[in-house]
């Protein structure tokens, strides 16, 4: 008979609250948990950066993509931390399962997103909402899994040796933040340049699953039932096998995806330190196309119409010394050299690989007229903004700005008031600046923002446009080069240092297909699209949006 007045014994703590049965000393076990925190944090940040980089590459507008991905991930991490409280009784098994799923999802995320982009087409059109939702879904899933890691690891480290919660949290987050630093540095300096986006993500997933599996199956195996150990072991081996097999086949996948994106005529495909460069066609009568980061930059079908309109109006006047910003393909320089009296052409391009290709590729060199063999042509490689800061004042009669569309975030600073202020300084008195400002019909707000920015920099711009082929190049920030229902065009601005220059072609001999009548008519058409009241774009307040 139980005496109701007898003192009651305290209930034995549940097994998940008791000390863990470790095969090593507690101090060693604690160090191993912190090492796992370090590795998992590094892998988690690589997944985040991989999604940001891939989204910026596939969609464009890197600021928007980074903001969406990181905000969704941080939100999901909070939700994941709350959800992980339900797994605290089974912290070891729960952490092992989280790492298996995270390694699979994170490791294959870049592959899945690139496959959807390659085989479904435009991310910016109507069908683009599906892939964009997939991008958000990956961000959400990876954030949930990363958020679930910390509470489970906190439980595991406390099971080794109970300590003050503040000290435990400090140790855990110190390892987490240092791991994030290593992952953040490894992505741009090791994984991306040496392995590429797809293989880099797969390797990160493999490291992730090995670290998580080793911690749970090696250190905390005593907390698992025999069935749980076998399930986790099989899951880890299976995920590691999937990642390894995918890494072996990734080159074949990239070739198939590249053909889906660019067609079967890919002749050159290389990843420079700056961008992906792809050349298609140029042989057997097929027009040459040059793609930079997936955007059609040059099309042999109608590039002459573009470059003639960009260059020839600016050459009406003194033009002995000409500066070409961008234009590493040599096509703008080709049009410049057609004018008598040119003594020097200086090309400043960001990517030396483009310049090298323009020199050495037979089809591209033939298209640019072998301009790099001309002794009048000089080349500098580097950022045009920083190059202008060191350039001598009043040293060029003409500046040709042959740069990517302003709607692309990376190009926004090259269409800023500060940039045009530097350009104005290198122009001689009476010098002229020709700017490619994107399509007028489809993005008039962007075009007229460039015009407002030129005026704010003290230049006097004259707008004009020229129609292109229905598949015209110079795709905007959404990467599209598809036919537009209102037709494709290129917008230009011819600006003078002191006065607004007249839109007139140089006198005889006539060069190219552009006529004065066409130029005058297209200038009137451009003026009719004017968007009034736009502010200038600056470095701290870029205003180029789609």
From TrEMBL:
Catalyzes the irreversible transfer of a propylamine group from the amino donor S-adenosylmethioninamine (decarboxy-AdoMet) to putrescine (1,4-diaminobutane) to yield spermidine. Belongs to the spermidine/spermine synthase family. It is found in: Cell membrane. It catalyses: S-adenosyl 3-(methylsulfanyl)propylamine + putrescine = S-methyl-5'-thioadenosine + spermidine + H(+). The active site is at residue 402. Its EC number is 2.5.1.16. Pfam families: Spermine_synth. It is a multi-pass membrane protein. The gene is speE. This is Polyamine aminopropyltransferase. It is an enzyme of class 2 (transferase). Residues 1-20 are annotated as: Disordered. SUPFAM superfamilies: MFS general substrate transporter, S-adenosyl-L-methionine-dependent methyltransferases. The chain crosses the membrane at residues 31-59, 65-84, 96-117, 129-148, 169-192, 198-218, 230-250. NCBIfam families: MFS_SpdSyn, PRK03612.1. Gene3D superfamilies: Vaccinia Virus protein VP39. Spermidine binds at residues 307, 329. Pathway: Amine and polyamine biosynthesis; spermidine biosynthesis; spermidine from putrescine: step 1/1. Keywords: Cell membrane, Membrane, Polyamine biosynthesis, Spermidine biosynthesis, Transferase, Transmembrane, Transmembrane helix.
